[in-house]
Design brief:
alpha+beta; seven-stranded mixed β-sheet; 3 helices; globular
């Protein structure tokens, strides 16, 4: 069993929002997501902001759809919000997902693995503590971190235990 951390954007205000139920990567992250295995644990670090995306109020859509509009992300927690377990093989989705106002408008986040929720932390573990455990500067936002800027990084068993212990301290407000 291995341990990982990934960054994800906050939720969007639509019915079919991209919850943290899957780990998504672009083509540049395909090799690292293949290294993950069913049963591995993954911390979800929710960023403070996310890009604008195209949606129709119900689900994400292509900018060419006539009922499509630009949707903004909700304000994120800027910290670890969940611990999940990988429960599927790598899958490809040719429809996911278009963004507005970015160079990657046409770039698909088309590789993913489904996950099961292990623990949802009501209050996020602050980024300062996450950065300390991972060896980053305190103000680092974790955008583009990981192998090939995939947003996924394998973490050591000791880092996993430290992050989990800190998340539990936050839950029980021991800090």
């Amino acid at each position: 069993m291995r341990y990982w951390i990934t960054t994800q954007w906050p939720e969007y205000d639509i019915k079919d929002s991209s919850s943290h139920a899957c780990i998504w990567v672009r083509e540049n992250g395909r090799e690292i997501i293949k290294q993950m295995a069913i049963g591995d644990y993954v911390f979800i670090y929710e960023s403070k902001t996310g890009p604008c995306r195209y949606c129709n109020g119900e689900q994400f859509c292509s900018p060419t759809d006539k009922n499509c509009r630009i949707c903004r992300a909700k304000k994120g927690k800027k910290g670890i919000v969940e611990l999940r377990r990988i429960c599927s093989e790598v899958q490809k989705n040719d429809k996911f997902s278009y963004f507005s106002n970015r160079k990657s408008d046409k770039e698909l986040w088309g590789w993913y693995r489904e996950t099961d929720l292990v623990n949802q932390f009501g209050k996020a573990s602050p980024s300062v503590e996450v950065n300390k455990v991972l060896g980053y500067k305190s103000g680092y936002n974790l955008h583009g971190f990981g192998q090939n800027h995939s947003g996924i990084r394998e973490i050591k068993n000791t880092e996993y235990k430290e992050l989990l212990a800190y998340a539990h301290k936050v839950i029980y407000q021991e800090i």
